[in-house]
Amino acid sequence: MIGQTISHYRITAKLGEGGMGAVYRAVDEKLQREVALKFLPPDLAADAEARLRLIKEAQAASRLNHPHIATVYEVNDTEATPFIAMELVKGESLKRRLQRGSVAPGALLEVARQIAEGLQEAHQAGVLHRDIKPANIMVDANGWIKILDFGIALLTGRQRGRGETEESFITRTATQASTGGTVPYMSPEQLRGEAADARSDVFSFGVLLYECLAGRLPFRGETSIDTLHAILHHPLTPLRQVVSDIPSGWEELVGRCLEKSPQQRLQSMAEVVQALKRLAAPASAAEKSLAVLYFENLSAAKEDEYFRDGITEDLITELSKIKHLRVFPRAAVVVFRNESVTGPEVGRQLNATYVLSGSLRRAGTRLRISAQLVETRTGHTVWAERYDREMQDVFELQDELARKISEALRITLSPQEERAIARKPTENSQAYDFYLRGRGYARRGTRADLEFAIELYDRAIGLDPKFALPYAGIGYACALILDWHDKGERWSLKGLEASERALALEPQLPEALVARARLCWVRRKVEESIEYARRAIERKPDCEGAYWTLGQAYFTSDRWQEAAELAERAVEAAGADYNVYVPYIMALERLGDNEQSRRLREAQTRALQQHLQEVPDDVRARILLASDLAAAGQTEAAASEIQKAVALRPNDANVLYNAACAYGLLQRKQDALELLQRAIRAGYANAEWIARDPDLTCLHGEAEFDRLIAEAKAKG
């Protein structure tokens, strides 16, 4: 239809299609504005009763005038295919946002309030939505919400016909859903074909809240019938069992929305709005939250990015020591690192009350840092300062920044906080610079980068033998080399010695605990690996590599459910680290949770593509991308990436193994077996992982596959 003119609307692009019709972007040639046109699907367009319902529902929706409801401009029933012309809402759907992971309670509060107020307005006007779900909620760049498709759900014919039994209606509903319906968001009374009222929208709103907070649906099943049965009969899994640190007020609100009996549910969206206000009150009165954006690098050398990253991340760590200030972790802000966004924009997206941004320029031994603290709500600058210092003063500068920010926010530091902020990781600024540079190279992941990182860490230790962090860095980098590139004993010995030294200097240093966990994992000491990783997460939830290592250890010990329960938190804590997704995707696939595993694969694909823009020679990332493309059915693109990666690293055991997995996802058994054999002969020996890897499911039952597992076990 693109290029056609329907009535006075010229169609320019297709926006999407679902069970209730196709949506197009169009230009209203009378008023010269862009609109969205929603067309009935052909089977409903030919139904006179459906066309009548379209007019009735659009007329009802057009009466709604609220800032959080997409406006209906016109319903046109004169064309061969009837359509609704409505406001074109720019931004992304909440469904798309959830593909990146769950939403923190603080960030969800404003979103939930806007949705609830829009629904409250509609209900007061006598209009029900009947299809509340993330796909029908649009979020613009400023965090502004618009609800789409009021009343359209009635057009699907999900009404109990005269004389139709409850059992036959439920069967018909599930059958319709199998081709794209939204059973997971329907209330029990809707599923039984009973009359729906405002409380049905309350139930659907509760499902949406649960999914946002937990990163998964409250009622799930492998098929629509299973999901339908779960909504009708299964008890709700309490939010606290899925999200351990969920505030009690959220759990109470969601639980009351999801009562199966309408009489026991919250009775109106007005009650929901009041509950959300009670949730917001303590936070606005007592909590101050801060997002620290990555400083802009104004240095002439792009290589100084590592220094910019290090200064920003260490400042986040310093500010996190202030008890009465909630500081967003690195993982929450790293996605904005190279984005052109303003402080208030980020603040609204994260629901942070304040945002710190700035820039740095390094020239020789001189360092200039400019910083400004902005209030998200007003966009006003609360505090700003410029510092010109010598590099040797970098720790005093971080200390001063933390103190100035606390003063600007009127937070009085306790003596313990004063001491914690004043503590230096090393007295030698050059050692600190070598450490930051080494950490930057280690994150790139290639063998050459890891070996250079170890060299830089060694230089840092040479300048300050009591600096614990570079020892931990060596331990972690050695573990990665052992896992991905070289099984040589020298890497094991060097890694163990360095991690032991780090723990001797600082027994509770999270980075040292992760290094130890990673080395235990590589040496197949799974229970020790789990213990060290857990201890690291307790002390620093976003410590690099902690959740990744814990997930791998859980997966190889068949503790898939424990891994699945951590999946959303792991991804949220990982930031831009693409590695963390792997074990959690596999655990979810083993448990048959295809919906969540698909979402994580899509998020990993985006992380891999972003990483490869910065490090195009990371062949491991490229072969993992091939697996994701294969899982998404992009056969040609996957095969191209496989061939490219294997050609670049024909003897790399890890690359060969992941190539076998990608071929397994493409159902190319012979290619998968051949690459698996090459991987094992090149040194891949993790038989437990091979046997459990869902990407190789197509090889199960093949005699050659069993023989190769035995060969890997013998090598291991």
List keywords for this structure.
Phosphorylase Kinase, domain 1, 6-stranded mixed sheet, 716 residues, alpha+beta, Transferase(Phosphotransferase), domain 1, 6-stranded antiparallel sheet, single chain
What does this 3D model show about the protein?
This protein is of the alpha+beta class and 716 residues long. Among the domains are: 1-88, Phosphorylase Kinase, domain 1, CATH 3.30.200.20; 91-285, Transferase(Phosphotransferase) domain 1 (Transferase(Phosphotransferase), domain 1, Orthogonal Bundle); 287-424, ABC-type transport auxiliary lipoprotein component (Rossmann fold, 3-Layer(aba) Sandwich). The chain has 32 helices and 15 strands. The strands form three sheets. It has a six-stranded antiparallel sheet. Strands 10, 11, 12, 13, 14 and 15 form a six-stranded mixed sheet that branches. A hairpin with a 2-residue loop joins strand 2 (9-18) and strand 3. The protein is globular and about 80 Å long. Mean pLDDT is 84; it is low at 153-160, 172-181 and 282-286.
Alpha plus pi helix count: 32
Averaging pLDDT over every residue, what do you get? Answer: 84
* CATH architecture designation of the domain at 91-285: Orthogonal Bundle
The CATH superfamily of the domain at 91-285 is known as Transferase(Phosphotransferase) domain 1
So what's the overall shape? globular
Radius of gyration: 28 Å
> Structural class of the helices, strands and pairings?
alpha+beta
CATH uppermost class of the domain at 91-285: Mainly Alpha
Sequence stretches where pLDDT stays below 50 over 5 or more residues: 153-160, 172-181, 282-286
